[in-house]
Design a protein that fits this description.
Elements (H helix, E strand, L loop, with lengths): L18 H31 L11 E5 L16 E10 L5 E4 L8
Antiparallel strand pairs: 1-2, 2-3
């Protein structure tokens, strides 16, 4: 059995003698075409220039996300979300970098 747009004979409904249903089918077809065009446009944009990543260089200053760091704050809610102005001292890969951390930080 087909979905709601299939007749009892199993064929898709393309036309009918009921004007409201014909209008509804036309509207559904138009919306589907618009959605497919939007998806196609989004895919083309992603292929062309969707990657806006620019690698950092030595001596650039960056923010460090604290998502995977443990801190001494009593709760995660009170902890900082980011640390700022950390200097890149070396490049490990295009997404990994050595940072100059403050002396008081303990990496254990």
């Amino acid at each position: 059995m087909g979905g709601p747009l299939h007749s009892l004979a199993g064929q898709p409904l393309t036309h009918t003698s009921v004007p409201a249903l014909t209008n509804w089918l036309t509207d559904i077809k138009y919306v589907r075409e618009q959605a497919q065009e939007a998806i196609k446009r989004a895919q083309d944009l992603t292929k062309k220039g969707g990657n806006h990543f620019t690698p950092y260089h030595v001596r650039d200053k960056v923010w460090l996300d604290t998502k995977n760091l443990t801190a001494t704050h009593p709760t995660a809610k009170l902890a900082l979300k980011h640390y700022s102005s950390l200097l890149i001292t070396g490049v490990i890969s295009h997404v990994s970098y050595w940072l100059a951390l403050p002396q008081r930080w303990c990496i254990c």
